[in-house]
Amino acid sequence: MSSVDVLELGRPVTRVVRWPDGWVYLAAVEPDGSQPMTVAFHDLLLLDPGLAKLSLRRAQVAIRAARAGTVGPWAVLGPYNSRIVAQMLDDGTLDRKQDGMLRDLPEDGDPGSWPDPEVWSLRDVVAWNVQHPRTYPVPEDTSGVAPGTLVKLVFLPDEGIGERMWVLVTEVDGDRLVGVLDNDPAAIVGLLAGDRVEFERRHVLDLDTRPRG
């Protein structure tokens, strides 16, 4: 599957989604009325031979930034379940991540310099609560955390102030969880909305179980 814009207008492909039953290739800008269409992969390779090197597992998403003929490297996200992929496409998560990538894309087509991502960690809020029980409350019970739950974590850069950010849970395996960062950090370089985050229940500062959408 592709879109009319990709095939007929030759726009660069900047989003590739591998669904359980097929692939979708989307252009840098998709107008509201853009319609998907089935095309031969060979036709897409004529527009962008580099797509042949992009290997994705099921329910993975690949995105890149493009500006005036200059395209950045691919970033592969996931795998996620199909509901999460659809949600990321609909709620602007991928748009926000691509906006962040676009900021780093050179203006004139030269390779430029890509900033190294900052090293960060997650605060053990349960241990912190033991030291500061009155001023640092944490959830009494996280057993109800399931895919689709929003949890707040504290991200700590090596230098600077920590940031509290929401993560949408996508996988739960006992005390170990995986999620998608739901907002962009203010200062941590290289961490953007849509990024995969692995964490444990001891990192959960707050819960928001309200239905999304």
Describe the protein's architecture and organization.
- It is elongated, with a radius of gyration of 19 Å.
- 19% of the residues lie in helices and 30% in strands.
- It starts with a strand and ends in a 5-residue tail after the last strand.
- The longest helix has 11 residues.
- Strands 9, 10, 11, 12, 13 and 14 form a six-stranded antiparallel beta sheet that branches. A four-stranded antiparallel beta sheet has the order 3-2-5-8, with no helix packed on it. Strands 1-4 form a two-stranded antiparallel ribbon.
- A hairpin with a 2-residue loop joins strand 11 and strand 12.
- The protein is an alpha+beta fold and 213 residues long.
Instruction: Give, in order, the helices and strands.
Output: EHEEEHEEEEHHEHEEEEE
Radius of gyration: 19 Å
How far apart lie the N and C ends?
A: 26 Å
Can you tell me the residue ranges where pLDDT is under 50 for at least 5 consecutive residues?
none
Q: How helical, in percent, are the residues?
A: 10-25%
Sheet of most strands? 6 strands, antiparallel
Coarse shape: elongated
Total E-strand runs: 14
- Average pLDDT metric: 78
Strand composition percent: 25-35%
Oligomer: single chain
With helices defined by DSSP (H or I, 4 residues minimum), what is the helix count?
Answer: 5
Report the structural category: alpha+beta
Core attributes:
four-stranded antiparallel β-sheet, alpha+beta, six-stranded antiparallel β-sheet, 19% helix
